[in-house]
Amino acid sequence: MNIRVKIADFSAEAYFECDEGSAECGGKEFRLPPRFSAQASTSEKIEFALRLYHLHWEKSAIEILKSLPEELACQVDIIPVGERWEGRGIPRFWLVKGGFARQSESAAWREEAVSILPAELARRMEIEGGVYRKYPSAVSRRVSLKPLNGQPFFQSSLIRLHAPLGIKFKKAPVGETFHWEHTEDLWFNGHLELRAGENGLLVINELPLEDYLASVNSSEMSAQSPLEFLKAQTIAARGTVLATMGCHHYGEPYHLCNGDHCQCFYGVSRVNEQSIEAAESTAGQVLLHNRIIADTRYAKICGGMRESFDNVWEEYNPPYLPAVFDGDAGNFRFRGWEHYVFDRPRCWCNPEIYPYPDYYDFARDLFRWREAFTFDEIGEIIRRGTGCDIGALEEIAPLNRGASGRIIRLMLQGDGGEIRINGELNVRRALSPSHLPSSCFTVEREDERIILHGAGWGHGVGMCQMGALNMALRGADCVKILKHYYPHTELVDFFG
Ligand SMILES: [Zn+2]
Ligand SMILES: [Zn+2]
Fold first, then answer.
1. Mean pLDDT over residues 4-11, rounded?
2. How far is the CA of 369 from the centre of ligand 1 (A)?
3. pTM (2 decimals)?
4. CA 407 / ligand 1 centre spacing (Å)
5. Distance in Å, CA 41 to ligand 1 centroid
6. I need a surface site. Which of 75, 92, 337, 470 has the fewest CB within 10 A?
């Protein structure tokens, strides 16, 4: 089984290197020079938009959606998941509405739909927020390949590259929009597919699932981590890929992206013997719950309490993703979130109790963190992050917190209006030039500054990666780690 992962979608020229590489297009194959570049021709985009609302609901709710008044009528699609991959046994639906000429029009439609939908459905739409998709112009665009400092030698709308020893993608974008955003030379095995994408050149890596997983465990975490941790990480990654196949990038020409949205994937650059062993020794192993592949999500640092699935994604709370303390519950005394962000509970991801290895130095300050902004700075960040101008900021008020303290609804009040932000990721984006480490924070005002005191890194659902690593460093094996983070599951060899 092959998997297709988006590596980049950007307007820049992309540079590649390989030995004995070939390119394939329309049934023809030709040799690649050792160094070459690719660029998509640009053209005017037409202003056409489609809004997809992601809903996981039972059939009766879908009937309600179909019977909306004509001006709000929408189309409901069933995601074409294969029989084998039916995610958690729940039919998956998308509510599709479009096209809108502008994003603001689609937002207005949502407001109206939310106001007349049954309350529970409306809440779902608020949390999901929908996916806004602009379609590029119907004018066909082409990808040009050219040798370094030479003239284009090939042009097509879709080109597939392959080299037996891999292809180097020079200065590939990594961690876009997050605080670790940078460029890096990355190596890829399998095929690299080049297409004209929404923003320019779309680069997709197609490779066998198990090869992908060996890369994911060394991209998500360091390949120097203990083997038992890497095995647990691989099994979790395999489970979430299989349980959500076809859902994360519905309608796109790839299954997954290579960023935090899906799972980090940086090709084979960071793979070592141990990360390969972790993938090979667990090949095909997944956790099942009620004979269905468990969607074994994970996140970097829970901060103490783990988050529930429905506070981050859909109205569904599988028993194998409990929102509980990441350690012995007897060690946790909850005194309110104002205290929690300063407390250092005795949980598996607390670096003061279980020191992180040197190769995770960067994560030490994210168990508890602090961000300070002047009022001018935060005003500008909110304007840029939300696209709304609420004037001078007066109040940051959490409206709802999840089980881990992560804010899932936030109100920002200014002297020129107020906005409400739904969803932990949107909260993290609204108050930071990139992303806050998590949406679990409290707000302190200090003269001219706003200070956010926070806990954890990531959404906090499922396995706490730094907690799991600490368990492995202290002798826990892969099975014990998985049992701790995913109760009510059984480990099986799915392909066996
Ligand atoms: Zn993604
Ligand atoms: Zn944790």
1. 90
2. 26
3. 0.82
4. 22
5. 25
6. 75
